[in-house]
Amino acid sequence: MTRTEYPWLLPSAMSQEADLPGDRTGARPRRTVRDWVVDTFAFIIAAVIGILASEASQQAGNSELVVFADQMLGLLACCALWVRRRAPLGLALTLLVVSVVSPVSAGALLVSLFSLAVHRPFKPVAFVGALAVAGTAAAALVRPDPGMSFLASLLTGVILILLVIGWGMLVRAQRQLVVALRERARRAESEAELRAEHAQRLAREAIAREMHDVLAHRLTLLSVHAGGLEFRPDAPSAEVARAAGVIRDSAHEALQDLREIIGVLRAPGEGEGADRPQPTLATLDALVAESRQAGMKVTLDNRITDPAAVPAATGRTVFRIAQECLTNARKHAPGAEVTVLVSGRPGHGLTVDVANPAPVGEVGKVPGSGQGLIGLTERATLAGGRLAHGATDDGGFRVRAWLPWAA
Which pairs from 27-30 meet CB under 8 Å and 24+ separation? Predict the structure, then answer.
């Protein structure tokens, strides 16, 4: 929340908005230190003007009763200025009537017009201003100043009225500008928080997707070889050693991938050493070899003669699609042969087609099925391509994706 360092230097309305932006109680804002200083200063100015007007009234030869009545009305008018923030329109209209018969109230009238221009919109201010000009003319006729002509008194009154009203409108415009800038700052802070939350959510989704794509493949390899050791405890020592080596290597690779994914959460410079190379289309052969080593039957038909010519982002997407498909085939169709076909050329796009026949025997339901395919669809869409998947007529499963490859 944007706050002012010294709220006591602001008008009460603005400080109330800064401190209690959601207040709906309708309570009037309390005066700040600045309000007390300004109100006291306004009272003094109105009193000084009234004293000068009272002296002029005495010099004009008015009776003591008239002078005393002027002074009392002027004092009451000055005291009434303490409510100018709560009822500026009513106060201005009242003092307008009083000032016609009491020149001592002229100072209080000017202050009330200034307050009206600060706290009310233009239409009521213009209306009261016009009445004030007419009242000035009426006052010049009812209580003429012997030292000034009627025209001079009228011009002086009009100029003073226009000055105080113009000054009040300027103060109002400045306050509205400050309020607008403050609201814009609050909106910018809220939007920045929303953008940060959105970025965090996208980062979490990306990390979750990457963890699923990478770790699921490694962990299924561990599960396959550990299951083989469990159900064949009498296997030859060479086969046991080979399976143990695969388990060790897969666990090591899983830990490396996990460190790499967690490294995304770290600030720049916190990681140790250079980043690990990202998989590309050129590493697809190693992925297939790894699956074959785990006992899977995988046929790879890579018709891309130069994998290095494929853009890195596109090749990485193909690798992740093939990796997820092999992981799914290992879980849902164990023992079935998987065919991986990669084809395409620049300008026409790149296609990856992974299919497997129906599994032999009954396969139990795997928890969390389908989440990986959702992630693959999102990954392909983000890359500008498309992905389709579904069961085949013979009971198998097929995943086919197309990705753009610029010429």
Answer: 28/86
Q: What is the DSSP letter of 392?
A: -
Tell me the backbone φ, ψ of residue 72, rounded to 5 degrees: -65, -45
For 255-287, how does the pLDDT look when each residue is reduced to its tens digit (9 = 90+)? Answer: 776 666 666 555 444 444 445 567 888 889 988
SS3 content of the chain, % helix, strand, coil (to 5): 65, 10, 25
| Adjacency order of strands within the sheet including 397-403 | 297-302, 337-345, 349-356, 397-403, 386-391
DSSP 266: S
SS3 272: coil
Q: Phi and psi of 154, rounded to 5°?
A: -65, -45
DSSP 8-state class, residue 10: S
Contacts of 100 (CB under 8 A, 6+ apart): 135, 138, 139, 142
Cβ neighbours around 375 below 10 Å, total: 19
The span from the CA of 339 to the CA of 49, in Å, is 100
397 pairs with which residues across the strands? 356, 391
Maximal CA-CA distance, the chain: 132
**pLDDT per residue as tens digits for the range 229-238:** 666 667 777 7
Write down how long the chain is: 407
335 and 294 Cβ atoms separated by less than 8 Å: no
What pLDDT is recorded for position 269? 47
List, in sequence order, the alpha helices (H) in 60-105: 64-80, 88-101
401 and 387 Cβ atoms separated by less than 8 Å: yes
Nearest alpha-carbon partner for 113 in 134, 96, 137: 96
- Residue 182, Cβ density class (10 Å: 0-12 exposed, 13-18 middle, ≥19 buried): middle
pLDDT digits (tens, 9 = 90+) for 147-192: 778 888 889 889 999 999 999 999 999 888 888 888 888 888 888 8
State pTM to two decimals.
Answer: 0.47
